[in-house]
Amino acid sequence: MAELLSGTDLSLLRGERCLFEGLNFALSAGELLLVQGPNGSGKTCLLRSIAGLTGLETGYISWQGVPTERDRQSFSAEVVWMAHRVGFKGDLTLIENLRFETGLRSATLGGIDEILARLGISRLTELPLRCLSAGQQRRVALARMLISDARLWLMDEPFTNLDAAGQTLVVDLISEHLAKDGACVMAAHRELEISVPVQRIQLQ
Amino acid sequence: MWKFLHKLASPPHFYDLSAKIIPWFSVGALAFIAYGTIAGLFFAPADYQQGDAFRIIYVHVPAAYLSMLAYTAMAVSAGIGLIWRMKLAHAVAAAAAPLGAWFTFLALATGSIWGRPMWGTWWEWGDPRLTSELIMLFLYFGYMALRGAIDDTAKADRASAVLALVGAVNIPIIHFSVEWWSSLHQGPTLVREGGPAIVPAMMYPLLAMIIGFSLLFAALLLARVRSEVLYRERRTHWVRKLLMPSEEST
Amino acid sequence: MNSDEAKIPGLWHGLRSIVRRDLLLAWKRPGDMLNPLFFFAMVSALFPLAVGPSAEQLAISGPGVLWVAALLAALLSLNSLFLNDYEDGSLDQIILSPQPLPLLALGKSVSHWLVSGLPLVIVSPLVAMTFRMPVETVGVLMVTLVFGTISLSLLGSIGAALTVGLNRGNALLSLLILPLAMPVLIFGARTVSLAAADDAVAAGIYFLAAYCMLAITFAPFAAAAALKISNE
Fold first, then answer.
1. Given this model, what pLDDT does residue B197 score?
2. Contacts of B180 in chain C (CB under 8 A)
3. What is the phi/psi pair of residue A59, to 5°?
4. A89–C3 C-beta distance less than 8 A
5. Which subunits count as partners of chain C given 3+ CB pairs below 8 Å?
6. Domain residue spans in chain B?
7. Domain ranges, ordered by start, for chain C
8. What is the mean pLDDT of chain B?
9. What's the rounded Cα separation, in Å, for the pair C78 and B117?
10. Which residues in chain A have their CB less than 8 angstroms from residue C231's CB?
11. Residue B147 confidence (pLDDT)
12. Do the Cβ atoms of B185 and B114 come closer than 8 Å?
């Protein structure tokens, strides 16, 4: 299968500390890259540098063989980013927030009803987002990934704040995404039960 | 050419090279400033209108010139650092800012002292060039404050570089608007249509002072960049070897 | 999933959606919009209280006072331009959008002006009247304020982007932006003064318009570069 995302000779310093050095990976469509390590080991930083939010000390990320620095736009069009902070406006409703997404990136509200039903947040559409619980807000962040047709999901600790059902749901959603030739990079500090090809990066 | 530039940009090489250049600049600065001071204070004729008070231009004009030159140096190296990601260029920009601020302050102080006999006041708002210098000083303060507010050096470098470039675009506009705002000051002294307006005996010391100040700036800048480089590269092998040769050999 | 034909929304759509979102947010929190306006009115009111009610003096200092008050009011609201987006993580999403970041920065400036600059222009005649400004001069004041506040929203977006996420960001923002805003203040206030003295005002208005165009052209790029650096 064709190589989708690769990193070559990545290293990153944070202030005085070296988070990782000489890191390489190559991810194909349908694969999950699991970035593991204790707190403060640089999982988030690695994800942010893959996304292009943080500059790397050395090395480069390639998307379909093209360095992302060279064609930032077509790479960005293929990425959705799920971070610790959900990145929504607390004053706006769920639908208003998601509608803003459709202006930012390739996404459609066409199948929104089924998506919200599946995520169990159908009845929350009229409330300002700050009235939702942390777990419910995470589910809205999942909705952002589902309405977009990006192939690469970058997820930083997606299980945080989710109940058991929610965590199972995340695993199912990732499996389905990978089955549709997508790819996923996930930072997690714990082991994961999932029946897809998994690569691992262990950070110290 | 590129190879030479690349080599120059490597911190250890710069550190060695600058050590050789600084004495030359310092001696040159001393010679020019000494000539300019003596000739300007004792041999240049007194101005027929301003008397001996005009002699402060031998400090005021070079300082004002240097306040611009330092900003230019800062903005250019900040731009180089931002575009080509050259760390040495960022170190130059960081080192140039306080020097520029000092020269600006000197220009303001001497201008104010000059204003006392000329206009009978320490501060004349109607003078566009003093006002421009004041805004210039604020620009330097802003640059240094932004740098000071960001902990991460690499981030501070790039953020302040953006500010330096925005400031560089704005400086001509600021000067233009301040000129428009008021026109009380005497016209430019050195460059004027139909040749300089002052006699050679007055002008040569002034030129010598401008060259001397520029050399002084270059020497101070290099010395500051040296210490900046040492600080920034403190974790590297070559700095450790330089500072603690015995520890390295054991 | 059709991966080879990613449908990135058009530039116009991107600009419109960020402006619409920010206007919606301002609508839900009208305080953010009204505070700079009250501030503008109050600073303008402080001045006559401080120097005395002499009509002559007020007429002379009116343009300057109104312009300084407008500048400070614009600064007051600039601090939060990117701060909320930075704090809730929206800024990550905006930077990672395939839309060009300068376009989105421009959108932020546009909505900032619509929320803070435009109301100020609309209210300014009321405040100007208390300074005994003649009606023709009020027209000039409004024109200069239109160009001036647009320029300030754009220039300020650079400062706000540079200081987002820093402690003491607010004071620093003023320190960075005020010297850069000096030409706008000079031309704005002087043009109104000239108008009050029945002098020619075209030069000042042309300058402000030109500055405004320059800011629209370059400021979004500088702000975008600064945002990327600040959000690392």
1. 61
2. 186-187, 190, 203, 207
3. 90, 175
4. no
5. A, B
6. 61-243
7. 11-230
8. 84
9. 43
10. 53
11. 92
12. no
Query: Are B152 and A15 in contact (CB < 8 Å)?
Result: yes
Check CB contact of A17 with chain B, cutoff 8 Å: no
Lookup: tokens for A65: 């063989």
Å between A97 CA and nearest CA of chain C: 8
Instruction: Give per-residue pLDDT as tens, A121-139.
Output: 888 888 999 999 999 999 9
A9: helix, coil or strand? strand
Which burial class, exposed, middle or buried, applies to A32 when counting CB atoms under 10 A from its CB (0-12, 13-18, 19+)? buried
B142·C179 Cβ contact <8 A: yes
Structural domains of chain A, ranges and CATH numbers in brackets:
1-78+151-161+177-204 (3.40.50.300), 83-150 (no CATH)
Cβ burial, residue C182 (10 Å; 0-12/13-18/19+)? buried
Q: What are φ and ψ of residue C197, in 5° steps?
A: -90, 15
Q: Are C112 and C153 in contact (CB under 8 A)?
A: yes
Q: Using one digit for the tens of pLDDT, what is the confidence trace for B172-190?
A: 998 888 887 765 344 444 4
Token pair 């990193």 is found at A7
What backbone torsions phi and psi does residue B147 show, to the nearest 5 degrees?
Answer: -60, -45
ipTM for the assembly: 0.91
Locate all alpha helices (DSSP H) within A11-52, ordered by sequence.
43-51
Strand arrangement, sheet containing A17-28: A17-28, A3-14, A58-63, A66-67
Confidence of residue B250 (pLDDT cuts 50, 70, 90): very low
pLDDT of amino acid C34: 87
Cα distance between residue B48 and residue B61, in whole Å = 19
Residues of A within 8 A of B151 (CB-CB) are: 15
- Which chain B residue has its CA at the smallest distance from A13's CA? B154
pLDDT above 60 for C6: no
Which residue is it, tokens 């609309």? C122
The answer for residues whose C-beta is within 8 angstroms of residue B128's C-beta and 6 or more apart is B175, B178, B179, B181, B182, B183, B184, B185
C-alpha distance from B176 to closest chain A C-alpha (Å): 39
- Alpha-carbon distance of C161 to C150, in angstroms, equals 17
Predicted model pTM = 0.89
pLDDT(B25) > 60? yes
Question: Which string of b and e fits C115-145 if b means at least 16 CB within 10 Å?
Answer: bbbebbbebbeebbeebebeeebbebbebbb
Per-residue tokens: A108: 């459609």
What is the C-alpha to C-alpha distance for residues C151 and C214, in angstroms, rounded to an integer? 9
- Nearest CA distance, A15 vs chain B (angstrom): 6
CB pairs below 8 Å between B and C: how many?
Answer: 74
C86 contacts on A by Cβ (under 8 Å): none
Q: Do residues C224 and C105 make contact, with C-beta atoms less than 8 angstroms apart?
A: yes
